[in-house]
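I am still getting used to backbone structure tokens and would like to learn alongside you. To get us started, please write out a protein record for me. Once you have written the record down, we can walk along the chain together.
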Amino acid sequence: MALLHLFCAFFKVGLFAIGGAYSFLPLMQKEVVESHKWMDEDEFSHIVGMVELFPGAISIKFATYTGYKVAGVPGAIVANVANLLPPVLFMTVASLLYLRYGGVPAVKGALAMVRCAVIAMLIAIAIKLAQTHVPLSLKAVPVLVASFLLLTLTKIHPALVIIGAALYGGLVR
């Protein structure tokens, strides 16, 4: 039964996580924390940080962690297959359609508005994470400020910012 629940939860995330990368976080939080209670808010925020440390798609790493926690290796496999199935199917169909109709103004307009909605979702989850999960202390302020400035004003790779923040956090605790 756990595998079926994992499949349904991650299929839902894969189906509705439009925009990629961080757009899935509100959906993931709803499924793994609120609906199924596979982890609490604190663990969720730790896993958000942990998945940033490793290469690859964030949703795959989240599916792997959650699936493994719930049902071991079979759970990790089921969660990932369910997570990947909707985007693979959608992208196959969308690729065919975009190659044919991508220049149509209505298609361009629809895609532009989807980007706006995704930006709003990212801002909302950032605010929610900051309100409930970021240990706002004097130690955190330099990381928040330096990370923001480095990512907006330089071409530094985000992985270096993440590694730097982890090193700083490990040293300053």
In short: Residues 135-173 form one domain. DSSP finds seven helices and no strands in the chain. The chain has two domains: 2-134, 135-173. The chain has a mean pLDDT of 88.
